[in-house]
Amino acid sequence: MTKKQTIIFLCIVVPVIALLIVGVVLTDGLYMGGETLDETMQNAVLHENDKISILGLEVNPALVSAYLVTVLLLLFAAIVRIFVIPRFRLIPGKFQLLLEQAVGMFDGMSRSYSPHRNGFLGAYIFAAGAYIFFGTLFELAGVPVVTASGGSVALPAPLSDINGAIMMGCLSYLVILSGGILSNGFRGVGRTLKEFSLPISMSFRLFGALLSGMLVTELVYSYLMLSIVLPVFVGVMFTLLHAVVQTYVLTMLTALFYGEVCEPPVRKEKRYKRKKHQIQTEV
Fold this sequence. Notes:
two-stranded antiparallel sheet
């Protein structure tokens, strides 16, 4: 950077920073008159003061986020299936390569952790991973809605609500249970029920990780010296980190436990090996 460019840069950046500081100081009284940090944390968990009225029923804003994310993902999948996939070429373009890499990653994970039964597993962890990833990034859009009390709130991530996180954990557990039943019958049920704490750990891991990002951002906002530019950076980075980490953790755990309950009994494998060895010996 030349000396002239440095001077121009400083002439632009310094006034912007000065205006931000002046704006924060002038609006500090307005900010402090809103919710306290304790109220913000309580609303983030219980959503008592920011419920949304739908057909006369007051629901958590995360439920609206879940519906929107689901509709957008289904619409995107339908568009890709109808208009994009029929035009796939032998030499893939950028978007085709991106889709193939995503599908190949989850398909490879399902084959690696569950070699005996992985057809439905690959489809499920791909769908669950897409929902967690894009659902977490959805809060960056900051879609505003009117609450039942007449206020305004930005729609959060669907899994930042404890109910949504519990349902995702229970759904993954049911998928694991179904795989065990289809592969090993009642023995598969016994294998799955031994991991009775799995849906609880999955649910609270999702909920705690997504909630922590929002709480850290609110803590940064609560201090005047940190509430200028840093919250934007912290919020975006925490959201991206949680989207990637939680997508990988839940899909990996689901594939791992699914593969364990679908593994055939050791006795059958030993009998198969003995029978195969006898046939080879006779030949």
